[in-house]
Amino acid sequence: xxxxxxYEELNIERYALMAQEMLQNxxxxxxxxxxxxxxxxxxxxxxxxxxxxxxxxxxxxxELAPESCECLQCQSDGDGIVYCSLGELEGLSAGDLVxxxxxxxxxxxxxxxxxxQVLSNVASLxxxxxxxxxELNAMAKELGERYDELSMxxxxxxxLTENSESRHIxxxxxxxxxxxxxxxxxxxxxxxxHAIYPGGKAYSHDSLEALSLLKHLxxxxxxxxxxxxxxFGINDKDEDLRHAIQLPADKKVLxxxxxxxxxxxxxxxxxxxxxxxxxxxxxNKSTLDAVSRKTLKYLQDTQDEMTGLLxxxxxxxxxxxxxxxxxxERHLVLLNIEQFxxxxxxxxxxxxxxxxxxxxxxxxxxxxxxxxxxxxEADQFxxxxxxxxxxxxxxxxxxxxxxxxxxxxxxxxxxxxxxRAGVIAFNQKETALSDHLYAAEIALASxxxxxxxxxxxxxxxxxxxxxxxxxxxxxxNIKHALQExxxxxxxxxxxxxxxxxxxxxxxxRMIDESGELVPPIEFIPVAERYNLMGMIDRWxxxxxxxxxxxxxxxxxxxxxxxxxxxxxxxxxxxxxxxxVSECLHEYDFLPTNLYFEITETAAxxxxxxxxxxxxxxxxxxxxFALDDFGSGLSSFSYLKKLSVDYLKIDGGLIRDIVSSRLxxxxxxxxxxxxxxxxxxxxxxxxxxxxxxxxxCSMKIDYAQGYEIMLPQSMELELKHLSEHSNFxxxxxx
Length: 733
Hints:
Elements: H1 4-9, H2 12-23, E1 28-33, E2 39-42, H3 47-59, E3 71-76, E4 79-85, E5 88-89, E6 92-93, E7 96-101, H4 110-162, H5 169-181, E8 185-190, E9 195-199, H6 208-226, E10 232-234, H7 240-244, E11 251-259, E12 265-274, H8 282-301, H9 312-323, E13 330-337, H10 340-347, H11 349-366, E14 370-377, E15 380-386, H12 392-404, E16 408-410, E17 413-415, E18 419-426, H13 433-449, E19 455-457, H14 464-483, E20 487-496, E21 503-511, E22 517-518, H15 520-529, H16 533-549, H17 554-557, E23 561-565, H18 576-587, E24 594-599, H19 600-605, H20 607-618, E25 623-629, H21 636-641, E26 646-649, H22 661-677, E27 680-683, H23 689-697, E28 702-703, E29 712-713, H24 714-723
Parallel strand pairs: 18-19, 21-23, 23-24, 24-25, 25-26, 26-27, 27-28
Antiparallel strand pairs: 1-2, 1-7, 3-4, 4-7, 5-6, 8-9, 8-12, 10-11, 11-12, 13-15, 13-18, 14-15, 16-17, 20-21, 20-28, 20-29, 21-22
Helix pairs in contact: 2-4, 4-5, 4-8, 5-8, 10-11, 11-12, 14-15, 16-18
């Protein structure tokens, strides 16, 4: 039956008057009947007449053509009646439009002919308006559902922003989705991660039977999706798919795939209802599709692009889930490739990437019982192993053997690799994952130091653990320093060896709770290890622009270029471009007076992200410097693809340049190639006059180091510049 509201919205009175006027018959009665023959509107309040019209239609055996306004002509008891079918709307009967002339002249043979011709046209107009109203209502309903869907996703996103622990993300999405769809049970299932995230209004931790059924349905549906089947719902008991997926007769289900960028299924989202609960709709499927896209984004964020394994964020989330789904004996293993940097230097970054991919495959397929395999850092892998009474040291040695025996050939040569591992018995219910990782790192460090031991199992009481605890304390100190604004900016001048364009490098320092400066070497590596550099980078950008744009300094600050260091983490920050744009707009600082410094190592490690990142930042007018160039022994082919404006030559090539012919040759080569590419060169660690003179003779563009200026407070340096407006650089060299 049509929505009753459609009949209420229809201006049928207008059409009744139109029919009377066209037929010049004020006695003509017009009625609207629903698909059951019941009168829903009549231009008369004559109850017997209403019953007469309804009853007469129900007594007729003649069917009207549903897709036309064909008329059923009747005459009885002196009444002339014409029924015009309004057809169907989206498979639903629209009912009939009825025209009745009371006490019609039986001799008037033209009544039906005249009436049918005119009134069929009127009925067509009524049908058209019903179609319009139906589509309008359907559109409004769909828009309302989309709004509710977007509101659900938005509210979940905001909730996750406030509590961004990765382990909660998918759980909250499926919980919100289950609530939005009023589903009894719901789940996100990721087979590669051995993970299922349940939810729904009827779900609790005791719903083991429902959880088992959800896993079973997802598993079968996943195979179907792999074979090209699209998402589907089952509401009917006789649905063919019910048998195919082994769905119990007392259940309804909605299943959609999670598709990666190649349209390959990587998971399933499922909603399950009892049979007496509401049916699933196309709109519900649309909501699951939206959650599927959110889930994919999360999976991509928690996956290592190079190897396809989990990254650190994904590993932490998966291990956390593991606590609730298995009680088996487990060990945490960290595996490291020895001297991986030598492989990169000797064979190139592309070969290094191939090695990492091979190692990932070997680990994942080595032994049974390996769960949650991840690449945590450049050459460091992590995994959980279910030991089940097996000798853990033998198992890990077997994994190392598989890795070491991998055959990797490059240009006819075999690349040999060696691995070492640190192991700790895993019990996250009593000890945090971070503590397990620290302990495993200690064991791994011991394995690296002891040439005879490829595998070291961590034992409590190891004094090295105290060093890790100190790092933990430092992590908290860094967080508190950010919260309490206990970071300060220093700067160091970069002097031109040709021309007169002076630069400054912006440097960050931390102040401890006692007011003492903390050297960068004590907190920067910790911040990098524990993913705090992204927050520090943002703080530095904002604070630097605040200082440079204040009324007291801007006239003098704008005469120089200012370089700000960015970490490798920031290169993967999708929102950093917008953040910089907002800061530049807020503080009205000229973008061309600003450049960002990124290290060669970070650029190569995040190469694809780096190219995209640099292009976005360049579009604002901000430039780039590639820092520590030469330290990674990277090829110039990578340099061609990176839109850098400055090359900062690594200090290791500068310190001994006066006496080392090899360093001289390398620096000269860098300088000549940079000049051809239109890139300016900056030499770091210029410690004395002799180095400065050598660099001038080699036509290096800029120099930086203690010979030029010691790092000092950026605010004090800006005050100095403002007080000595006639400040001139020493360019005599």
